[in-house]
Every structure is written in C-alpha cells, then in structure tokens.
Amino acid sequence: MASIWQYANPRKFIQTTDRVLPWIAGAALVALIVGLVWGFFFTPEDYRQGSTVKIIYLHVPSALMAINGWIMMLAASLIWIVRRHHVSALAARAAAPVGATMTVIALVTGAIWGQPMWGTWWAWDPRLTSFLILFLFYLGYMALWAAIENDDTAADLTSVLCLVGSVFAVLSRYAVNFWNQGLHQGASLSLDKEENVADVFYFPLLLCIAGFVLLFIALVFLRTQTEIRARRMRALLVRERLG
Amino acid sequence: MIALLTRDLRLAVRAGGGFGLGLAFFLIVVTLVPFSVGPENALLSEIAPGILWLGALLACLLSLDRIFALDWEDGSLDLLATSPVPMEALVSIKALAHWLTTGLPLIVATPVFALLLSLPQAGYVPLVLSLFLGTPALSVIGTFGAALTVGIKRGGLLLSLLVLPLYVPTLIFGAEMARRGALGLDMKTAMMMQAGISFGVIALLPFASAAVLRVNLR
C-alpha cells in the first residue's frame, strides 16, 4: 500500500520528484507570470496608495513563504527526530536558504513600499522586527549546518535548534508586540473573514501566492535532490579511496 | 551534583580569566557608551537601563563558550556523561555555575555602573530586580547554545549568532521592566512576563541542551 513514507527512500524520492518537478516548476512560472502581469498592468491603482500598491504582489507572497518555509523546516526536523529519514533532514536543510531569501525579499519590498507610504524605509514596528529576527534564525540555522562536518550530527543538532528556535520565534513575536506599537496594518488576508482585499486586487494576489508556493516547492525539491546526490557522490568518493 | 558545582566554581575562580573577565567587559562597555553618544547626563540617564541590560547580556555571552569547551577538550565531559548524574542535571548545574560566576557578579556590580550612567534614583531597584529575574534565563539559554557548538572548533562567533536571537524575548522584557521602573511607570506586566520566560526556560531548556550534548558526545 502506498504511504507517504515510501518517499523517505532517496531513490523513490528522486524518481518521483523528477517526474513532477517540471510540472510544478512550469505551473509556478505560469502562475507567477500571469499573476504578476495581471497585478502590475491590469489592476486599477489604489485611490490612496497609487501605483505603489502593486508591490503587494511580491511582498505578501514572499512574507507568507518566509513563515511557511520555517514551518516546513520545523515539520521536516520533527520527522527527522522521530523517524530518522535522511531525506527529511536534507529537505529541511534545502529549504533554509530558500526561506531566508523569501525573508529578504519580504523585508526589501517592504522597505521599498514603506518609503513612499510611511515616509521611512524602516521602522521598529513589531512585524518588521519579528521578520528581521526570523531572518537571524534562518542565518543561525544555516551557519550551524555549515559548521558541522558529520552529517548525522549536523542533522540532529540543527533539528533541535529548529524546534527550540520555533518556540523562541513565537515568543519574540509576542514580545515585540508588547515592546512597540506598529505602523504595519493588520492581516488583510485571512480565511475566516467576510471581506478581504477588494476583489480586483485579490485574484491576482491569490495567483501570485500560488506561484510563490509552487516556486518554493519546486526549489526545495530541486535542492533536496542536489543534497541527496552530493551525499551519494561523497560516499562513492570515500569508497573509491578505500577500495 | 554539589561536587560538580563546587568544582566548576573553583575552576572559574582559580583558573584565571573567566570570573573577572565578564565584569571587566561590562565596565568597558559602560565606559565606552558616553564616548559614543556624548556625555550629557539627561541622555545617559534615559538610555541607562537599556545600555546596562545590553552590557550585561554581552558580558554573559562572552563567557558562554567556557561552559563546556574546557571540559570537552580534556575529556572530563565524557567522564561526566558516564557518571550516574543524568545529563539534564549536568547541564542545569553547568548553567547554575555560569550564572553564579557571571550573572550574580554582574547584578552586584550593576548599581555602581548605573551610577556612571546617572540612572534615575527610582530605577535602581527595578533594574537589579529585572537582572535578577532575567540573567538566569540568559545563562540557561546560553548553556543550550554552548552545548550545540561544543564540538566545533572556533565556534565562538557561531555561538553568538545562534544565541543572540534566542535572547530577544529576555532582553525585551528585562529592559522594558528596567525602563518602566526608571520612569516610575507600572512594570508589573513586564516583570511577570520576564519571570515567566525565566522559569519556563529553566524548566524546559535543559532537556534540549542535554539532547544536543548527547548528540555531540556520540
């Protein structure tokens, strides 16, 4: 019977992802192109924000993926700790740089958006601050992976760091809320609200979000494959030297 | 466990450096601040609680890699790991020893340093209280970071990178409590949050530290 755990087999993982990767990457490309072109050129300008509102099509999806990337790493770390599937540890490792990049995109687009709207590139607003802290967590996680030579030790240590870091990231999120009041608006998209952003902005935005999600999945698949192959190659080299 | 604690304390006091170094570093930070922001007393007294908290945090950070590094190098950490004392207790004792040799002297010295930064009269008790509540959390979180990086050569910078983001909540609530105290505002919320973080961290984090230490000793 097929179960999700069969993909813990590296060969099976590579086989399957090889088959779906072009489709996911293609879908990401289509969604991003259509969403961005629609968003940039075929939506009206906001009556107060003018054309700067269009940066929302990059800002919101990247911010979403920055957080979801960490959550994905958390899940993969848990799977590694509980079931010790190497693919899972490598997927967590592969996701970190992608998530960090998403965080940077969100911060940079936010700064570019904030300049005309709030009159400042940066403010110590709770949301901005917690994103900066999230970026630091990504940096620490990647640095720890890079610093340890033994793969299994590195996987163990980074997954514990990911778990502890998650708790502290949430703590920090609420701590900065307490520390300073913000400029940033509240959530404009949520599933339980009657009204979100106006529909003209909403649909291209949804498309862009879908594009970013697919892009993230495609990149993580690709990078996980690379990690698996790199590790396999290292093993072969070692065997050659011994033999 | 008591033996381990006294051993660690004795090592910290006698084997040079560790003990006084944190305090000296704290003093230097406090001395350098007026040079960088100017000597006006009004400005200094306004930022004093934050500066003192930051100085204490950095001084604490400075001595973290000593928690396990020396024991790791001469192999006594392996011996400790095979002793009947559970690993969780071991890391808790290590954190306690670190707090006694770093956090406690900092707390005792802070009123003097606060004088240098002309902290308002009302600020002394809240500042000391906030450090008293907050520095144990710094030691325990730092022990986790030290356990993570114990096997890495020249892991000092990495240790800072890993530990500093984890210090954010403690710093926020601690400095906020000290600041509100200095201004004579109500500091109950910050105090309770700070105490909550400290106690939570003391109760839970030793398990994570012990887990990563076991991995590193494998």
Automatic annotation (TrEMBL), chain A:
Q: Which GO terms describe its cellular component?
A: plasma membrane
Bilayer-crossing regions? 20-42, 62-82, 94-116, 128-148, 160-180, 200-222
Q: Keyword Aminoacyl-tRNA synthetase on this protein?
A: no
Q: Which Pfam families match?
A: Cytochrom_C_asm
Subcellular location(s): the record lists: Cell inner membrane; Membrane
Topology in the membrane? Multi-pass membrane protein
The main place the protein resides is membrane
**Domain Cytochrome c assembly protein: start-end pairs:** 12-184
Any GO BP:
cytochrome complex assembly
Report the GO molecular function annotations. heme binding; heme transmembrane transporter activity
Q: Which keywords belong to this entry?
A: Cell inner membrane, Cell membrane, Cytochrome c-type biogenesis, Membrane, Transmembrane, Transmembrane helix, Transport
Q: Which family does it belong to?
A: Belongs to the CcmC/CycZ/HelC family.
Q: What does this protein do?
A: Required for the export of heme to the periplasm for the biogenesis of c-type cytochromes.
Q: What is this protein called?
A: Heme exporter protein C
This protein's species is Sediminimonas qiaohouensis
Which gene specifies this protein's sequence? ccmC
Automatic annotation (TrEMBL), chain B:
Predominant cellular place of this UniProt entry's protein = membrane
Query: How does it sit in the bilayer?
Result: Multi-pass membrane protein
Protein localization: Cell inner membrane
What do the Gene Ontology cellular component annotations say?
plasma membrane
Q: Which residues cross the membrane?
A: 12-35, 47-64, 96-118, 124-150, 157-175, 195-217
What Pfam families does the record point to? Answer: CcmB
- One GO biological process term: cytochrome complex assembly
Q: Which GO terms describe its molecular function?
A: heme transmembrane transporter activity
Q: Which family does it belong to?
A: Belongs to the CcmB/CycW/HelB family.
Q: What does this protein do?
A: Required for the export of heme to the periplasm for the biogenesis of c-type cytochromes.
Checking PANTHER family in the record gives:
CYTOCHROME C BIOGENESIS B-RELATED, HEME EXPORTER PROTEIN B
State what protein this is by name.
Heme exporter protein B
Name its species.
Answer: Sediminimonas qiaohouensis
Gene that encodes the chain = ccmB
